[in-house]
């Protein structure tokens, strides 16, 4: 005969040991922190990323080809200074989340530098994108990001020709 406690104990143990789902405030905080790493000058040391992403982070953006894999590659990517724009600020417009995933609609605002484009320096540049973030519930760190944005709009605002 199977006792009730032998059935309930594993269920209770898994419930107690499982990390809780993200709450609204946590999801907003994580999304803002992630988007902020793409703003001008916010990340200056790789160690700043260790409280946001796992060491083996995978970041996908179809515009740029292969995935960015690992914290070293992410640091190189988020600290790259684009010579065409300056004063970049990327912030969420809205987010929604499930237990361990966050979707963020965001806006990108910057000023043109006038270098390598046909527009005058300090011309406002803007576009929107969407970020899907997967969060490890034990560590509360992002282990996967998939991004989609209107990079064609960015290029056309800078006076570049885009052949599709």
Automatic annotation (TrEMBL):
One Pfam match: NTF2_7
Domain NTF2-like: 21-160
Signal peptide region: 1-18
Keyword tags: Signal
Protein known as: NTF2-like domain-containing protein
Species: Mollisia scopiformis (Conifer needle endophyte fungus)
């Amino acid at each position: 005969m199977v006792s009730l406690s032998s059935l309930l104990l594993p269920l209770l143990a898994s419930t107690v040991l499982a990390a809780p789902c993200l709450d609204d405030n946590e999801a907003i905080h994580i999304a803002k922190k992630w988007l902020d790493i793409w703003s001008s000058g916010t990340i200056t040391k790789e160690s700043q990323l260790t409280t946001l992403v796992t060491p083996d982070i995978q970041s996908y953006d179809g515009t740029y080809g292969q995935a960015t894999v690992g914290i070293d590659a992410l640091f190189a990517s988020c600290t790259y200074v684009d010579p065409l724009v300056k004063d970049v600020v990327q912030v969420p417009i809205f987010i929604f989340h499930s237990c361990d995933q966050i979707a963020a609609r965001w806006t990108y605002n910057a000023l043109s530098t006038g270098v390598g484009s046909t527009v005058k320096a300090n011309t406002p540049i803007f576009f929107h994108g969407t970020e899907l973030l997967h969060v490890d519930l034990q560590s509360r760190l992002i282990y996967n990001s998939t991004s989609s944005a209107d990079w064609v709009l960015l290029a056309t605002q800078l006076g570049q020709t885009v052949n599709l």
